[in-house]
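for ur thesis appendix - Ig-like domain-containing protein. copy paste whatever u need, i formatted it the way the template wanted (i think)
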Amino acid sequence: MPRDSSLLLLGCSEVAGTCHSLTQLYFWPPSFLSYSRKTLQVLMGSTPLIVSLNDNISIPCKISGFNTAELDIKNVGVTWYLKTPRADQEEKVFTFHAGAHISHRNGASMSDSDLRRGNAALSLPQIQFKEAGIYRCYVIVAPSDAHGTAILEVVAQPEVSLSPKEVTIESDKEKTLSCDVNKFYPNLVDIKWTKISKNNQDSSVAAEDIHTGASVENEDGTFNVSSILRLQPSLQDNGNVYRCIVSHKTFPAKLLLNSTLTVTVNFFSLVFFHNVVHQATNLHIFPCSSTCDVTLHIRYRNMPMI
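the 3d part is after this line
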C-alpha cells in the first residue's frame, strides 16, 4: 500500500553542527487504519443445539469484523462441513461462492439477504439422527478468513403409557402393571417404580417384582422399552397408588404416571373365612356379593352391625 506522507525526525549536535536521521514515521490512509483494527470472526455459540427428529433447524454462523454496513456477497465464500461421530473426515454440506449456491445435502440452504447482514446461517429441513455431529462454518471475506463450530444433537421425546390406570385384584392373586416407553432417542432412559400408600407415604418396590426389558430399536432409529411390575397384594394394599417414574434428556422434569389399586375378596374365601372364624370366635360374617371389597360385614351374635 503506498505511503501518503512521512515525517523525518532528526537528531542534531551543536558541537559538530551535524544532524542525523533518527527515525521516519509514516502515515497510512484512514481506511487502512480502520481495517487493520478489526479481525474477521465467526461466532456460533458455545452450547449444543438440540433438535427433534424430523424438525427443521437453522444453525447460526454470525460474521463480524468486516468494515462495511453490509457484505458484498460477490466477495464472500462460505462452506459448511459436518463431522459425524462415526466418520473419520468432514463432509461438505453446503457451499456458497460469489453468489452461487451449491447444496450437498437435499434441502440445505442459505439466505443472501441474511448473508449481506453477516449471518451465514445454514437451514436444514427434516433433520435425521445421522446428521448429528459437529458443524463447521468456514467464511472467506477477501482477503481474510475465519471459521467456527457448533454441536448439533438430534433427539426424540418418548411416548410413555402406564396400563392399566386402575387395577382390581383379588387378595393374594397376581396381576402386572406395564410402563411402556416408546419412540425415544438417544437410547438412554431411566424407569423407576414406587408405591404410595393411603397415608401418602412413598415406599420402594421390591426389586424382584420389577422386570425391565432390553430396549428394542425401531426402523426409524428410535427405541422402545417396557418395565413390568408384578402385584400380589393383600387387603392392606387396597387404595395404594403405584407410580412409574421415567427420566429422559428430552423431559424438563421426571414424568410421573399413576395406577390405583383396588383389592377385593373372593366369595369362596369369605365362606372359608366365615367357617374358621365362626368356630373360633362365634362370629357371623355376611358376604356382600360374589366378590367384596375390603370392608367385611361382620357381626357378633346378638349384637348390632359394626
